[in-house]
Amino acid sequence: MSSTTDKIKGLANEAVGNIKQGIGNATGNEKLQAEGKAQELKGEAQKTMGDAKDGVKNAAQSAADAVKKI
Fold this sequence. Notes:
Layout: H1 3-27, H2 30-69
């Protein structure tokens, strides 16, 4: 999965998780609140994975550029 895909899926999961938490809070549904929090955390992890992939890609590109200059 690409870094952009990870980030998009992460944002979507965070948004849905926040909505579930809000509905759970409004209705007093603790199960829905917990599901929402879990989904939000999953989204944060996905975004972090996308950022890490970008970091690796950028480091590899920097290394390749440095080798070309030699």
